[in-house]
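Whiteboard transcription, Tuesday session. T.W. wrote the structure tokens on the left side:
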């Protein structure tokens, strides 16, 4: 996709904030986003940031097309994902899941895009708001972030076997993450992505390598990050085990005012 990038400035993003809550340069964290899959631009005179993605991840997965046909019996009946003529270059054999448990469809079946517009200087809202089904954030890889539900009031428990080693699978639209994405983050402080309310989501550890102990109900707090040592409000993957072996990306509510990811 075409990339329009505004250069990032120093790690001290507060230097770039104007009195009208506009910014002159993108926050440094956006440099972590894959520029082959994601474009980030300042819009509306620097008061908002537009993030656009092709919805594809930049890492390996068994959900890329392969020469193996797979069939699954799900709530909508039997569905067969046909074999491809050759394996996609990013295809790997399933490890955390198996061919007979994988969700229908391949990553490269998706031919669309996503866009999210957030405030250039996000602030916490007066009250938190629940996340909905579908995309609730955009990961640095280009794929989408989902919450801890598989459907309306349906927990992940019943479908966790379909998730690959990144805690992700294909869905009604595209490949998306529910759990800690081990392709680039496992028990660390790596940037995961940006949530729909404009706040960044980081791994389980804090900037100093410790587990944060002052997180709010959404896994957020104010403090330094690898991209802003002076500190800002941001979320973490909460260091709380799910089903004794997984870490859910974002099981809480938005603390800011969320925009729709379209």
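and on the right, the sequence the group agreed on:
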């Amino acid at each position: 996709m075409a990339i329009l990038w505004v250069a990032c400035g120093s790690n001290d993003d507060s230097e770039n904030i104007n009195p009208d809550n506009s910014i002159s340069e993108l926050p440094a964290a956006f440099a972590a986003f894959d520029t082959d899959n994601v474009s980030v631009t300042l819009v509306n005179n620097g008061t908002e940031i537009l993030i656009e993605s092709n919805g594809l991840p930049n890492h390996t997965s068994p959900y890329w097309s392969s020469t193996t046909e797979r069939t699954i019996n799900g709530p909508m009946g039997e569905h067969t994902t046909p074999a491809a003529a050759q394996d996609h270059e990013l295809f790997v054999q399933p490890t955390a899941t198996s061919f007979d448990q994988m969700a229908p469809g391949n990553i490269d079946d998706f031919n669309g895009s996503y866009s999210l517009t957030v405030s250039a200087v996000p602030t916490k809202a007066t009250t938190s708001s629940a996340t909905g089904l579908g995309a609730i954030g955009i990961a640095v890889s280009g794929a989408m972030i989902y919450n801890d539900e598989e459907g309306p009031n349906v927990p992940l428990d019943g479908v966790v076997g379909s998730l690959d080693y990144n805690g992700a699978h294909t869905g009604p639209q595209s490949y998306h993450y529910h759990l800690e994405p081990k392709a680039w983050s496992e028990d660390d402080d790596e940037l995961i992505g940006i949530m729909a309310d404009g706040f960044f989501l980081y791994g389980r550890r804090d900037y100093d390598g410790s587990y944060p102990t002052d997180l709010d109900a959404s896994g957020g707090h104010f403090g330094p990050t690898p991209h802003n040592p002076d500190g800002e409000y941001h979320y973490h993957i909460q260091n709380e085990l799910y089903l004794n072996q997984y870490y859910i990306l974002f099981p809480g509510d938005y603390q800011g005012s969320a925009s729709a990811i379209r």
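Someone added at the bottom: The radius of gyration is 18 Å.
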